[in-house]
Amino acid sequence: MRGYFAIGVEGLSKQGNFGNLVRTAHAFGASFFFTVSAEKIFSRQGTDTSRTSDHIPYYPWANADEMMLPKDCRLVGVELTDDAVTLPSFRHPTKAAYILGPEAGSLTQNMQDRCEFIIKIPTKFCLNVATAGSIIMYDRVQSMGGFSERPVRAGGPAEERIHKHGQPKFRSGVPDALKG
Question: Which InterPro entries does the UniProt record give (predicted)?
Answer without folding.
Answer: Alpha/beta_knot_MTases, rRNA_Methyltransferase, SpoU_MeTrfase, tRNA_m1G_MTases_N
